[in-house]
Write a structure and sequence with these properties.
The complex is a heterodimer. Helices cover 33% and strands 20% of the residues of chain A. Chain A is an alpha+beta fold. In chain A, strand 5 (72-75) and strand 6 form a beta hairpin. The N and C termini of chain A lie far apart (55 Å). Chain B is α+β, with helices and mostly antiparallel strands. In chain B, helix 12 runs parallel beside helix 14 (358-373). The chains are: A alpha+beta, B alpha+beta. One iron/sulfur cluster binds next to helix 4 of chain A.
Chain lengths: 168, 655
């Protein structure tokens, strides 16, 4: 069976431009306002480190589990966790409990909002030339992560061997 | 709506803050960014004032499209009466400040007067507050930004900041934002220092309502493709601006040892590919580029300073920075005749931290080197420093001395070339490479008359970003050039795709001057225009992007007219402050050496080249004619009327 795609983030590719924030806010709200984006690029500018953060659409979603009025639900078909705006009472329990800070609060509407994967055409992915955010099959994500991790261990091993050799 | 951002006029002497709307009429006249800044400076600085007095103004002006989707729109113009030249001072930086200023509800901040103690401005969601800067004073560019974010408890505060060089009133201290975005030219940081103003800190969560959001996004997508498909931008995205260095140097267009040669020899270490390699290695990553707000070109390489004896001596090993730009290559290698990567990376880092114009400081240090070798300066004047060309350590030492003003020579150079030459005396002025009192970029224009003409005519003095018809160097077929240069205003005169020619160049300089003014008003980065490639966006595209984002309906010709008008205001400012056509200090002339000393190195079509004096004067005359100026470069009554500027002096401010 075809796996529903997930947002994959490779922060090493991110240039910190925040275009993803900009287009996300325009697509959903019609306004340019990164503080209303569903994605946020966390930046450690003085070290050149940028990490885009967005909803992981968790399988066992803490936001969904904690919601007292069952406003948050999970659609198995497209693997999307969504908030029913009519049911949301703005208690912000989900905001507090999300491990990724991916649930946001709209001060004017007094309700929460989150990444909805733009109905299958994620704008952040569409506009990120670097593909620092990508929309991929989850098994592919796992595989490439595995490869990366293996590569890192291999590299570390090489360095260690060289170090040892130089000390002998 | 998109066009509801405001102007704040802040008087630091009285503490009064006036918040005013920007009328639609003003928009149509000046759009935003540099155009608005020119108008505000003209109206808010006192004619003939001492630039370091409270009567000067400093203006922070976001582009009209800043923070909106049109690719790299977060450009800010900082404009003031230049403490170095007494004429127009203006620079433009990228980064994230302009976007944040817009989200905070403002487009222009105009500061006059002088605070009695160090302050900073906090611009936040429709409000401007004057804050105590006691804890920020004395801090370096990054330390100050970090500290204010801590103080305000918000990591997304974006700052336009003056560094320690600005506090010390180094006359070419600049305004910085982020790690390395420099409002390089114009002395904005020095004016800020004279006002006891450490920074403008902006933070905003206010909507910019996009006029046609879906169309704006779709157009933006096309825009990006147009920009990133240009080969030149792909190269820029991997190597940054240093990519120009390789070609220009091998061809013979890099001014070295002040102005004695036009090619730096044996400089593999600072070639773009080598910088790129070091950047990747020191960041430990395959992807090593950083970008300004919403920009897909991402032209800045991240790096850490290597562990070398010189870096150890100056305590800079492992320090993080971005760049180094083409300009730093020239300032810390080409001009002083140095060839080492660590010198380049350290020089770049130091100017970013002190907040000083890399081009000006590098040029002046190199000028002092030539004076030292010529015996005009002695080791007594240099406090024992062996100021010979190629002495890397001396270059780094001099950057510190100038920014701290802690030696005789450092203090003298901090005053700028013309003032320094008056103090040093002898023949020193003869060796100074400047136009309108500003040191020249490190490139050598003796083989490219169009670029030389642009240097002499640029409103802020010797300049490579006011009008740089650099596509000249690509030898485009004349019919392609004609297509570019005949739109949106028809041009039937001669054109030549030979960069060593004088034919048709005056029009090219006019055209590019308007092109760059347009993007400076819109807030778009110059790498997204015809700056480097013929296929990049142009007047037609800007009219559309303006409409989709803001709803403002303007034709390409209307945008061209805004450029003409804004350029004319800049010229009127210069004329008001004493610019005279042939004045060697403040005039529209080239440094004498351009006319007298031929190029000694480089390609066969470069060797032996110098600028022909008569042809230069002829080009300048044509430029004046095309712009509606009289033979002295003064706007005619007719052209003033055409652009609605006939009463600029008399009428009250329109904002
Ligand atoms: S658009 Fe891409 S490169 Fe830019 S900040 Fe977002 S994830 Fe990073
Ligand atoms: S909002 Fe947070 S907790 Fe909820 S699904 Fe997304 S990442 Fe998981
Ligand atoms: S997928 Fe859509 S909603 Fe989610 S972060 Fe990206 S742009 Fe925003």
């Amino acid at each position: 069976m075809q796996q529903p795609k997930v947002l994959m983030i490779n922060h090493e590719k991110c240039t910190g431009c925040r275009r993803c924030e900009l287009v996300c806010s325009i697509f959903h709200e019609g306004v340019a306002n990164p503080s209303k984006a569903r994605i946020k690029v966390e930046k450690w500018e003085w070290e050149g480190l940028y990490i885009p953060m967005s909803c992981r659409q968790c399988v066992d979603a803490p936001c969904m589990n904690v919601c007292p009025v069952k406003a948050i639900s999970r659609d198995e078909a497209d693997a999307r966790v969504s908030v029913d705006q009519d049911l949301c009472i703005g208690c912000r329990s989900c905001v507090a409990v999300c491990p990724f800070g991916a649930m946001n609060f709209n001060k004017t509407e007094r309700k929460v909002y989150k990444c909805d994967l733009c109905d299958g055409d994620p704008q952040c992915v569409r506009f990120c030339d670097m593909k620092a955010v990508d929309f991929v099959d989850p098994t592919k994500e796992a595989l490439s992560k595995k490869r990366d991790a293996a590569q890192k261990i291999a590299d570390a091993k090489k360095v260690a061997t060289e170090l040892l050799a130089s000390q002998l | 709506m998109a066009l509801d951002r405001k102007i704040a006029i802040v008087n630091l002497t009285t503490g009064q803050i006036d918040i005013k709307p920007i009328t639609l009429e003003m928009r149509k006249q000046f759009l935003g960014g540099r155009g608005m800044a020119a108008y505000l400076l003209y109206k808010n600085s006192k004619p003939g004032c001492d630039p370091l007095s409270p009567d000067n103004a400093v203006i922070f002006s976001a582009g009209i499209l800043s923070g909106m989707p049109a690719s790299a729109t977060s450009r800010t113009d900082v404009m003031t009466k230049n403490p170095l030249t007494g004429l127009l001072g203006s620079g433009n930086f990228g980064g994230f400040f302009a976007a944040e200023l817009h989200y905070a509800g403002f487009e222009n901040i105009c500061v006059v007067g002088k605070a009695s103690k160090p302050v900073y401005l906090f611009v936040n969601d429709g409000e401007v507050k004057i804050m105590d800067a006691k804890n920020l004073w004395g801090k370096s560019v990054t330390e100050a930004q970090w500290a204010v974010r801590e103080e305000l408890g918000d990591r997304d505060v974006m700052c336009a900041v003056s560094g320690p060089a600005g506090e010390k009133l180094v006359r070419y201290a600049n305004t910085m934002t982020g790690i390395k975005n420099a409002n390089g030219r114009g002395g904005g940081g020095c004016t800020m220092g004279s006002k006891n103003l450490k920074m403008v800190a902006a933070r905003g969560t206010m909507d910019i309502k996009i006029a046609h959001p879906r169309e704006a996004l779709e157009f933006d997508k096309r825009f990006i493709e147009q920009i990133t498909s240009a080969k030149v931008n792909q190269t820029m995205g991997t190597l940054g601006t240093p990519f120009i260095w390789g070609a220009t140097n091998s061809w013979g267009g890099i001014r070295t040892n002040n102005f004695q040669y036009n090619q730096l020899l044996y400089c593999d270490e600072i070639e773009p590919e080598n910088i790129d390699e070091w950047s990747k290695e020191s960041m430990g990553s395959e992807y090593n580029m950083a970008a300004c707000f919403g920009c897909q070109v991402h032209c800045r390489a991240k790096y850490k300073i290597p562990d070398t004896p010189l870096a150890r001596k100056w305590g800079l090993v492992g320090k993080y920075d971005e760049g180094p730009e083409y300009t730093s290559q020239g300032a810390f290698c080409g001009e002083p005749g140095c060839t080492h990567l660590d010198t380049l990376l350290m020089g770049n880092h130091l100017v970013d931290q002190y907040g000083v114009d890399n081009l000006e400081i590098g040029s002046l240090i190199s000028w002092a080197m030539e004076l030292y070798e010529a015996g005009i300066l002695t080791s007594k004047d240099t406090d024992g420093l062996d100021l010979r060309f190629g002495n890397d350590d001396a270059v780094i030492a001099m950057i510190h001395h100038v920014c701290k003003r802690d030696t005789w020579l450092g203090n003298v150079l901090a005053e700028g070339g013309i003032r320094a030459s008056e103090t040093i005396g002898k023949d020193s002025f003869k060796y100074l490479i400047h136009m309108k009192g500003m040191s020249n970029l490190h490139s050598d224009e003796r083989a490219t008359p169009a670029l030389a003409l642009n240097l002499a005519l640029a409103s802020r003095g010797s300049d490579h970003l006011r009008s740089r018809p650099a596509i000249d160097l690509y030898h485009l077929p004349v019919d392609v050039m004609r297509r570019i240069y005949s739109s949106p205003v028809p041009y039937e005169g001669p054109l030549s795709s030979d960069h060593t020619e004088y034919i048709g160049k005056p029009w090219q300089v006019v055209w590019h001057e308007n092109c760059y003014m347009a993007v400076d008003c819109l807030g778009i980065c110059k790498y997204h225009t015809t700056f480097l490639g013929a296929t990049l966006p142009n007047f037609e595209d800007w009219a559309k992007v303006l409409y989709f984002n803001t709803g403002l309906e303007m034709s390409p010709k209307d945008i061209w007219d805004v450029s003409e008008r804004a350029n004319m205001v800049e010229r009127l400012f210069n004329l008001r402050e004493g610019m005279k056509k042939d004045d060697p200090y403040k005039g529209e002339v080239l440094a004498e050496r351009y006319f007298e000393e031929p190029c000694r190195r480089g390609a066969p079509d470069v060797i032996g080249k110098k600028i022909d004096r008569e042809k230069f004067v002829e080009m300048r005359g044509l430029f004046y004619k095309y712009k509606g100026l009289d033979e002295n470069g003064v706007p005619t009554a007719e052209s003033l009327k055409k652009y609605g500027l006939e009463n600029l002096d008399k009428e009250p401010s329109r904002v």
